[in-house]
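Allow me, if you will, to draw on your knowledge of protein folds for a short while. I have a record of one protein: its chain in single-letter code and its fold written as discrete structure tokens. The full record is reproduced below for your convenience:
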Amino acid sequence: MESTIGIEIFDKDTTKIGQTDLNGYFQIKLPKETDKLIFAGVGFEWATVTIPKECNNSEIILFLASTYDFITPKKVDRLRKEEFEKLTKLHSQAFQKGLFKTEEPCVIRKFEPNFPDLDKIRRQDKLRKKQIKTEFKELNIGDVVKIPFGIDTSENEVRTYYSPCKNCTEEDYDFVIEGKIIKKYNRKLTLEIIVTKMENYDFLKYRGENLKINSRFKYETKYYEVIID
């Protein structure tokens, strides 16, 4: 738990009225018709709070924005609510550490489900998964594919890219290995590939093994990006 810098503060009409300083503090004068504030910052979930008239010292806890892959929207909101219900305890801990001046929050804050937005994402994800399955079915043994990787040059280690990558080209990746499909497995839409071309490196580590020309490795297209010419 630490102070948050540069958190923007908006009124209920999403007009910016303030921002936290280098120590995480802010001071604003609320218009008479405003009793709700929105706190927003990059990497954090937005928080909407109601400020009672007697509340002169608003202390707010923001949750880090999380990425939930392959989880239904309802489950995501259930996980978010579990974290939200820890707010009172977290506020008390912040008070004990000297971050807050009050042991209990004076603002009113309700849990806000993200289900509508997440449901839209779920529909888009469903279409993308259908597209991945179609592309997998159209691939044949003997076809040549390109697998994009990111590279940790200090360890000569590679990491895969989660799919999808919209409008990406080979130039958007650190490194691309070219290989021929020698087997297909329906589980996780996996391709077994033999490396036919790789540049700039004699070998690269992938999942604890060295990849080089004529190496064989399995690659899960259900989760990771693949380039098909």
Summary: Residues 8-113 form one domain.
